[in-house]
Amino acid sequence: MLRGSLAPRGAVVKHASVSPKMLVHTGPAVVCDGEEEVRDLLTAGRVRAGGVLVIRYEGPRGGPGMRELSIPAAMLVGMGLGESVAMVTDGRYSGATRGPCIGHVCPEASEGGPIALVREGDTIRIDIPSRRLDLLVPEDELDRRRAAWCPREPRVGGGFLDVYRRYVSGADTGALLRAPTEEHRLHT
To answer: Suppose 127 and one of 42, 132, 139, 171 were both cysteines; which one would form an S-S bond, judging by CB atoms 3.0 to 4.6 Å apart?
Structure first.
């Protein structure tokens, strides 16, 4: 488990699969909103050694659900970037994923978590031995971004997906459906 300014409620990494040279990594963010954008970034060569690929809006609410992001992880390895680029997401990876792949970032982007505030080129620091995941942006700048943030329009919706998105808990509490509270009923 990692915690820090980018993941105040936690994130998960399989540290045994991370190359020793990537256990501590600081690099510029390359940001995309969903798995489909990742493929375009990778094939266009926009992800370079030393970077941190941020894939957001793939958490329980944002997906909706938590798609497994093993394809982007495999693409990085196939492109020779598996030991020089870290991936950070509010989505999830399979148990077979290798490399510096950090998932389950909480709170997720769809909740307005810090991952939603990351901009292209922001510096991200990963320190697995110290169990840290930090966005190196001044707090006053994050406050400005937070004030301007608007939830992203869902990629898919309607019916049960809208109900799920409204009542699902974060990955840190199991992505469980919660019964509507009186407060939910008043605001929906």
So the answer is: 132
